[in-house]
Design a protein that fits this description.
Strands 2-1-3-4-7-8 form a 6-stranded parallel sheet. Helix content is about 40%, strand content about 15%. Helix 1 links the parallel strand 1 and strand 2. The two termini are about 15 Å apart. The chain is built from 11 helices and 8 strands. With about 250 residues, it is α/β, with parallel strands linked by helices.
Length: about 250
């Protein structure tokens, strides 16, 4: 049995992991999907000062108070870019393996907002100002977003309705807070699950773009799971199988 902590990206909560959680538990694992502060059933806790540090503390406290060890720490998108490296940097003795779902660790001093192209940064900041009360990034129109994918995802009936109904605005300070890392996390084994981009793209970008530099480091294992950026919705069983393998690799390590 392995221990997993599952963290979603923007706008989502623990509910997004439900099929993956169920499959991992069916396989006998201990699974802890987490809604970060201000998200999903914790939306009522959102405040203008809810920032990256708040979300890091959420995870550190879960691991500490549940007394979790040898954790397979899984982060999707934003959670992979800045949350799980920060947690592992502060509590490396409790982490067995880091799993980045269609994301990668940003370098010290960079925020999630800075990862986006300038035009996206401007558009998001305007959305926050006009539709997010000045401190929240509203969820996207999910069906329109999926239609823009190179290959629109094959999703179970009702997925778009569920995404629209359950998604919550992202506290903007979580997006603009720079990540602060000492490098302790880099000693841990890492799995990169690639969905909307492939390893060759990662390597090409890592050679020229500072935001990708950690993705070219040693210590990585890569798994391709081609599809939508949100594989917990279009490929939950396949994603659970990859995570199950990650636990076996962590035990072998």
């Amino acid at each position: 049995m392995a221990t997993y902590v599952l963290l979603p990206g923007f706008w989502l909560g623990a509910w997004a992991w439900r099929p993956v959680t169920a499959e991992l538990r069916r396989r006998g694992h201990d699974v802890h999907p987490l809604s970060l502060t201000g998200m999903a059933e914790r939306a009522h806790l959102a405040r203008p000062d809810t920032d990256l540090e708040t979300h890091i503390t959420d995870v550190l406290d879960l691991i500490r108070y549940e007394d979790l060890h040898d954790v397979v720490l899984v982060g999707h998108s934003y959670a992979g870019s800045v949350v799980i490296p920060s947690v592992a940097d502060r509590m490396p003795d409790r982490i067995g393996r880091l799993v980045f779902i269609d994301s990668g660790p940003l370098p010290d001093g960079m925020s999630q907002a800075q990862f986006s192209p300038p035009e996206d940064q401007e558009r998001n900041a305007e959305l926050v100002r006009t539709a997010g009360h000045g401190w929240q990034l509203p969820p996207p129109p999910w069906e329109e977003l999926a239609a823009k994918a190179p290959e629109p995802p094959a999703l179970p009936d009702g997925t778009y309705e569920r995404l629209t109904r359950l998604s919550t605005p992202q506290p903007w300070a979580t997006v603009t807070t720079p990540v602060r890392l000492t490098g302790a996390w880099e000693k841990l084994p890492r799995l990169h699950v690639l969905c909307s981009f492939g390893i060759e793209h990662v390597r090409a970008m890592a050679a020229t773009v500072p935001a990708f530099r950690h993705m070219a480091d040693d210590g990585w294992t890569h798994r391709d799971l081609p599809g939508w950026h949100w594989p917990m919705f279009d490929q939950p069983a396949e994603l659970a199988a990859v995570l199950d393998e990650a636990a076996e690799a962590a035990e072998a390590h």
